[in-house]
Design a protein that fits this description.
With 170 residues, the protein is α/β, with parallel strands linked by helices. Strand 6 and strand 7 form a beta hairpin. The longest helix is centred in the first third of the chain and has 13 residues.
Length: 170
């Protein structure tokens, strides 16, 4: 199936650094299912002296890259727009090892304490949800277990699967 919607990310002036960072992280995932890679980078031409792109010589005009098979685009556009927590990318983790891996990598230089329930903000200001499929704890057949697991999750920064299991089953 062809991807019909492609997220497009606006960076200030560090697009190339950011996409290399993301590609490296996703390629290092011990549970990796497909290669992450930069497909193309087009840069602003040299010598732009006027207008909003003055001084963007050599910065990224457009970049196309894939993270675990999902296509993204990005650019350097200056400080006009910033990321906010209203938009995040969910990483569907298979186990605690994968949660720990992405959490540890994406929180370096970021702010793991700015959010809860498996959400974090990385060093570029992009928000991520690093979570397993939580349907068995939050939408399982035991309504009281669902409530206990939900209460446990609401107290977590990084998701800890064993704590969700214990809350659901207690």
């Amino acid at each position: 199936m062809t991807q019909k919607i492609t997220p497009f990310l606006w960076f200030d002036r560090n697009c190339e650094e950011a996409i290399n960072y993301y590609v490296q992280i996703f390629n290092g995932n011990p549970q990796k299912t497909s290669e992450s890679k930069i497909l193309s980078i087009k840069k602003y031409p040299e010598g732009i002296k006027e207008g909003p792109m003055a001084g963007f010589d050599g910065k990224v005009l457009t970049a196309v890259f894939e993270l675990n098979g999902e296509r993204f685009m990005a650019l350097d556009g200056g400080p006009i727009f910033n990321f906010n927590v209203g938009i995040s990318f969910l990483i569907d983790c298979k186990n605690q090892e994968e949660i720990d891996y992405f959490w540890d990598k994406l929180t370096v230089g970021g702010d793991p304490n700015s959010q809860q329930c498996g959400w974090l903000k990385d060093k570029y200001g992009l928000s991520w949800q690093v979570v397993p499929d939580m349907s068995k704890w939050l939408n399982g057949p035991d309504n009281e277990g669902n409530m206990r697991a939900t209460q446990a999750m609401l107290k977590m920064k990084k998701i800890v699967i064993s704590d969700l299991e214990k809350a659901y089953n207690s």
